[in-house]
């Protein structure tokens, strides 16, 4: 294999690939990226056996072929090369080395045979459709903060992507995540061809890797789903992942429908106030008390051993007086999801789940459990 490629194109491709590679693994080949050159394209493939990413870049291919090389080393070398450099890669099977040259810089990296590199088995996908990158980004960005990190409940360690019935009986593409303390449910218009999609739990690592494909609002993402795998693809990048083998709980049961006490508040102002008063809360509890009465909201923290804090906000609230406590971190995470100016909180009693949405928009709904203060 012998190719010449522009440094920026190679860096983008190897950066995407190396981020999938696990830093600590017992199988040497999994630390490598598979470099394949053919026609006028070079592709870089990396996997941790659960996720596989293939990134393609244009290149001048003098001699087609393939080899595997340390993903981390290749990324570090290319990252440190001068911008605009032309990078030449040449693999020599006899010496088991990959020669890298850019200007006066030369490197020789050890390689492993391409035959040893595990390629994720192809899958028969039950459903394929195309979705706008912006819609997918909103679905995953607004839900991923609620993914559980508790390994014992592994079926909560991802985002549940499925077809659901939204407002007015209209079918929607929905993403849900919960850790038992907070829940996010986000809806988007159902793309053509997605109605038969099986519900799948997309793992946390896949959600984070997928985010790199979704920056361009104008991009269209080809999505393919089976019972065991999900694939997201652009013309340059293909991300394939196993899905979590488990049953996501019936989340609809924990979304309150009878909460009648309504608080409307400027979302950014609320988040800043929570952040300020939480400064003095204990790291373990992080409890913030909300007191509401007559269009007034008082946020307070009382940590007897260290300090106390209080802040008052003007809000829209006309229900009975209410005192309720929350984990400050959960409040901040939910408030930071609001794209509109105002956040609407719907309360029942101090011991019941609280619902939050963005103004009158019901396509994004959040639930947070209270705590004693």
Explain what the structure shows.
- The chain is an alpha+beta fold and 373 residues long.
- Helix content is 15%, strand content 44%.
- The protein has 6 helices and 26 strands.
- A hairpin with a 5-residue loop joins strand 11 and strand 12.
- The longest helix has 12 residues, at 7-18.
- The mean pLDDT is 93.
Give a short synopsis of this structure.
With 373 residues, the protein is an alpha+beta fold. The chain has 3 domains: 2-116, DNA Polymerase III, subunit A, domain 2 (DNA Polymerase III, Chain A, domain 2, Roll); 127-253, DNA Polymerase III, Chain A, domain 2 (Roll), CATH 3.10.150; 255-368, DNA Polymerase III, subunit A, domain 2 (DNA Polymerase III, Chain A, domain 2, Roll), CATH 3.10.150. 15% of the residues lie in helices and 44% in strands.
CATH superfamily of the largest domain: DNA Polymerase III, subunit A, domain 2
CATH topology of the largest domain: DNA Polymerase III, Chain A, domain 2
The proportion of residues in beta strands is 35-45%
Give the total of domains.
Answer: 3
Q: How many angstroms separate the termini?
A: 66 Å
Helix content: 10-25%
> Which architecture of the largest domain does the CATH hierarchy give at level 2?
Roll
Order the strands across the largest sheet as they lie in space: 5-1-7-8-9-6-2-3-4-17-16-15-10
Structural class: alpha+beta
Please identify the top-level CATH class of the largest domain: Alpha Beta
Which shape, going by the Cα principal axes? elongated
């Amino acid at each position: 294999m012998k190719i010449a490629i522009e440094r920026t194109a190679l860096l983008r491709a190897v950066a995407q690939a190396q981020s999938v590679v696990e830093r600590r693994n017992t199988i040497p080949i999994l630390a490598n990226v598979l470099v394949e050159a053919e026609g006028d394209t070079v592709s870089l493939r990396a996997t941790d056996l659960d996720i596989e990413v293939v990134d393609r870049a244009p290149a001048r291919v003098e001699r087609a072929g393939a080899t595997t090389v340390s993903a981390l080393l290749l990324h570090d070398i290319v990252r440190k090369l001068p911008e605009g450099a032309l990078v030449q890669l040449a693999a020599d099977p006899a010496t088991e080395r990959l020669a890298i040259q850019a200007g006066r810089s030369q490197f020789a990296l050890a390689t492993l045979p391409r035959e040893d590199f595990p390629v994720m088995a192809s899958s028969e996908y039950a459903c394929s459709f195309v979705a706008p990158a912006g819609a997918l980004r909103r679905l995953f960005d607004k839900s991923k903060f609620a993914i559980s990190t508790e390994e014992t409940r592994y079926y909560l360690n991802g985002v549940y992507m499925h077809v659901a019935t939204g407002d007015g009986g209209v079918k929607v593409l929905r993403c849900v995540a919960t850790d038992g303390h907070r829940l996010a449910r986000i809806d988007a218009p159902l793309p053509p061809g997605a109605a038969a999609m099986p519900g799948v739990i997309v793992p946390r690592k896949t959600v984070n890797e997928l985010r790199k494909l979704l920056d361009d609002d104008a991009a269209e993402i080809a999505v393919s789903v089976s019972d065991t795998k999900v694939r997201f693809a652009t013309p340059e990048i293909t991300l394939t992942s196993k899905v979590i083998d488990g049953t996501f709980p019936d989340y609809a049961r924990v979304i309150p429908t009878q909460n009648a006490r309504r608080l409307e508040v400027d979302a950014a102002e609320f988040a800043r106030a929570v952040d300020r008063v939480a400064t003095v809360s204990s790291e373990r509890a992080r409890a913030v008390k909300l007191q509401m009465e007559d269009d007034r909201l008082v946020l307070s923290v009382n940590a007897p051993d260290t300090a106390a804090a209080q802040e008052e906000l003007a809000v829209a609230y006309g229900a009975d007086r209410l005192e309720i406590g929350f984990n400050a971190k959960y409040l901040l995470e939910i408030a930071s999801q609001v794209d509109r100016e105002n956040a609407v909180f719907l309360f029942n009693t101090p011991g019941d789940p609280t619902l939050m949405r963005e103004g009158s928009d019901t396509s994004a709904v959040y639930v947070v459990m209270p705590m004693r203060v």
